[in-house]
Amino acid sequence: GESVGLHLPTLSVQEGDNSIINCAYSNSASDYFIWYKQESGKGPQFIIDIRSNMDKRQGQRVTVLLNKTVKHLSLQIAATQPGDSAVYFCAENRLKTSSGSARQLTFGSGTQLTVLP
Amino acid sequence: DAGVIQSPRHEVTEMGQEVTLRCKPISGHDYLFWYRQTMMRGLELLIYFNNNVPIDDSGMPEDRFSAKMPNASFSTLKIQPSEPRDSAVYFCASSLDSSNQPQHFGDGTRLSIL
Is residue A2 scored above 70 in pLDDT? Predict the structure, then answer.
């Protein structure tokens, strides 16, 4: 079936290095994508989003890249800090064809990012 | 600004008991979502509302689960009777719209059914 998935379940980086977290999606009809950060004991926190009419979007220390040709999404974190340690989820927003015009946010399984001192 | 507020943060109860989880969305958000998160299945959408009306409840696992939104600032998710397999973290989220705005999550209710 269609799914949003992640290439790697865990990622360890040295403090100060850049991090790249990848995500693959399979539904070409998806038109809106979101990255979330989830720390232990907390809910997913919005980081950055991107619409399908864009291929790159930048925020504060974060950049999201969207490659629609290969259905790939990535989150780049510059100068990774200890506070960046968390699970990162990508999510795709698409029409749920079985429910008329209802849209559904489908989450990937998450990548655990660990920042090493 | 206040985010999505959920209560209780933790709930431990015996199987067979009724459980009620509560959510206050961000003011002005027209959409409210209930999710369940487990290690095995990740984040799953249970149900969502638009302007207090349930739009899609296909993710609700069984008839033991029900959700209501009596007004724009309050929603409940009820499990009756509860079972051990319902143990999970339940999140509520809200958004301005369903297609081009991010959902903002509360910190969840960690539910343990003994």
Answer: no
